[in-house]
Design a protein that fits this description.
The complex is a heterodimer of chains A (138) and B (89).
Chain A (H helix, E strand, L loop, with lengths): L16 H7 L11 E2 L9 E6 L7 E3 L3 E8 L2 E6 L4 E5 L2 H21 L6 H13 E3 L4
Antiparallel strand pairs in A: 1-2, 2-4, 3-7, 4-5, 5-6
Chain B lengths: L2 E2 H10 L3 E5 L1 E8 L2 E8 L6 E2 L2 H7 L4 H8 L5 H10 L4
Antiparallel strand pairs in B: 1-5, 2-3, 3-4
The chains are: A alpha+beta (138), B alpha+beta (89).
Chain lengths: 138, 89
Amino acid sequence: MVITSILGSTQRPIGSAEDEERANPSPFREDQGIQHSSLALPASLPETMSLATLRDGRLKVVSPIEVKFVQEGKQIAAEAAELSEFGFGENYSEAITDLQHAIVELYFSLKGEQDRLGPDLQRVWAILQDKLIERVFA
Amino acid sequence: MTIKVHEFDRIVSKLDMKVRDSGDLLAWFEYEGKVITRTRRSKKRSGDLPMSHSIRQQLKLNEQQLSQLIGCTLSRDDYTEILRAKGLI
């Protein structure tokens, strides 16, 4: 079915939801890049993921943060290598939550010191600015 | 290599790192007015810290250097030279 708008231009045919997703992939899906584990982690749980939210109203993720999971004893660690930041917990959820808090804390810490950062932290700050934007509340 | 809570605190003290309490204990190393490295630990009172290798990486040290830093054979000046050799200062 082809829809013609009031202005006369032709819009693309309405396809399946899968076609729509393929044509306009959301950058904010948290399940992007999931790979099944080949380590001691349970086979049904991911080894990596793309983090698309920090669960903090002040910051919005515009470019997903790659996270790798590692088992440390009885705990799970979530590591964002490009930010040299990590979180850990008793389970995946706790590890991700801890990492999210750490990234938020890192962002605002570096923001406060951005005029006097050394080269490595300048690199991290640049990555954070690329991946996150601050929400402006009127 | 694991880092114990008291060893982390010893590192912070030896390197004269600035600290802030924000749920976790945040620590950062400053040199000539610039923030060079930063790390953090959970606020547990004792025992091994999780993600010790990540803490080590945040401090930009290899295992031997970290061991020396904990074992008091590597000074703040030595740490500064390590960072300078890495181009971080």
